[in-house]
Amino acid sequence: MSELSLPTFGSLPNRLLRLYAGLALYGVGIALQIRSYLGGSPWDVFHQGLSVHLGLSVGAWIILVGAAVMLLWIPLRQRPGVGTVSNVVFVGLFADAAMWLLPAPGAPVVSWAYLVAGVVVTAAATGLYIGAGLGPGPRDGLMTGLNRLGLSIRAARTAIEVTVLAVGWLLGGTVGVGTLVFALAIGPLTQFFMPRMRPGA
């Protein structure tokens, strides 16, 4: 049995509202952390590295990588939902829009404010979109698919994120203190927000 088992509650309109609010906030959280210039999450180091090395925006790479990761779902027998497809399309768009709107931090305190806000917003967004119960994001689905094959969630997540972090760093993505802050804080913060962001909470 999977280690992740989340009940879903609420009407479909309510769940859709939570899904798309969560995806929008997720894009904002990504943008805040990247614009802090203190280091992104492992996946966003990877997306940033692809952008630096191959061109296109970070948001475009979020979309393209998400679509490619979904192909890995086929041998894992994972089934996408409307939330999965929406995640692939909209998170990258929201991230690019937020990065375009956010001013560059002019002082270290602003960089740190961006970083802290980015991690907190990402955790809250995760609670919203997963709590909607309309399908995991492509990257989360890869993790849960590996879990169904017998790999623990911890081992699956660690293996995936260490791999994308290393490749992203080699491609020129920004690894820094923000990457460490994200790694240490995202789990406890997501655990805090998950029960509070579900419909009916």
From TrEMBL:
Coiled coil: none annotated. The chain crosses the membrane at residues 20-38, 50-73, 85-103, 109-130. The keyword ATP-binding does not apply. It holds the Pfam family DUF6198. It comes from the Bacteria. Keywords: Membrane, Transmembrane, Transmembrane helix. The keyword Membrane applies. This is Putative membrane protein YczE.
